[in-house]
Amino acid sequence: MTTLKRHLTAGAAAAALLALIAPASAQDMPSSMTIATAAPGGVYAVYGEGLAKIITEEVGIPTSTRQTQGPPQNLILLNGGQTEIAMTTSGPAYESMTGESELAPGMKYEGMRALFAMYPTPFQMIALKSSGITSLEGLDGKRVGSGPRAGTGGTYWVRWLDSMGIDANLQYGSASDQSSQLADGRLDAFILAGGIPHPSFSELETTQDVTIFGMDTATRDKILEANPSAVAFTIPASTYKSVDTPLETAAMWNFVVVDETMPEELAYKITKAVLENNPKLKATHAAAKDTVAENISNDTFIPLHPGAARYYEEIGIAIPDAIKPAD
């Protein structure tokens, strides 16, 4: 054997040995990742871009966003291995875990794991002032946009209005499309679930004469009683410039989730990177002010990924028993 061949053979053997003794987490790290977000025009799309930028820069794995119909579809993609990271509200997460998702009935997603809480998503309502609509009851018989069909708003508004006996002509589409349709008079009202301030509402109140309204207490309480994953929420008066009083409504918390197969080290690095770079995320959207470690207490049923749990334990955050990883 020539000297050159001996050196090549030795090099190959050394490389193989290093591969065998390298930490499993290093071997399992993906070369790139995607984050399943939602349709354009909403907070998910904006927040997701900021999230992808932080993960790319701080974790060192190129990460991009994938536009979807929203949380229910995101969880199907995650469960099917078609995305590495998903954004979801608590309602669709609960239904996915219990096999009650309308997109995948009977399929229980038992491998979903939480990394961190994002922010609460309040259910919000806006109408052209000329329509005279100032309450949910006023939607009866009207043309109403409720966001993407598979989004949180598209999933829950149809159920809630039906339970209240409100027969609205619900139409589905992206927030950007439906805000344009409201401005053009093709819709009478637009109801959605999204972070605050919602970009489409902020734009509409700047260009149109609109009414942004909330729920009365009795209606909200009925919704909360029938939906364990929903919580009471007050939209501060300062959120929208055309509203000078707080608005009562219902909300669901949002979480970033991954599959249980994600390496522990990667889940740890993502959680640490995002929670320790909150100012960068807030620069993307104001809703990120709630993306802090303490808010993991708002997760009451999605099990934590062991990597995320390790980070919370390191910084002294108590983990609720209901979501502690199994030993």
Automatic annotation (TrEMBL):
**Keyword set, alphabetical order:** Signal
- The stretch of residues making up the signal peptide is 1-26
Q: Which Gene3D superfamilies match?
A: Periplasmic binding protein-like II (3.40.190.10)
Q: Name one Pfam family in it.
A: NMT1_3
Q: Superkingdom of this entry's organism?
A: Bacteria
TM ranges? none
Q: Which PANTHER family match?
A: SLL1037 PROTEIN
The entry's protein name is: C4-dicarboxylate ABC transporter substrate-binding protein
Q: Name the species this protein comes from.
A: Acuticoccus sediminis
Q: What is the lineage of its organism?
A: Bacteria, Pseudomonadati, Pseudomonadota, Alphaproteobacteria, Hyphomicrobiales
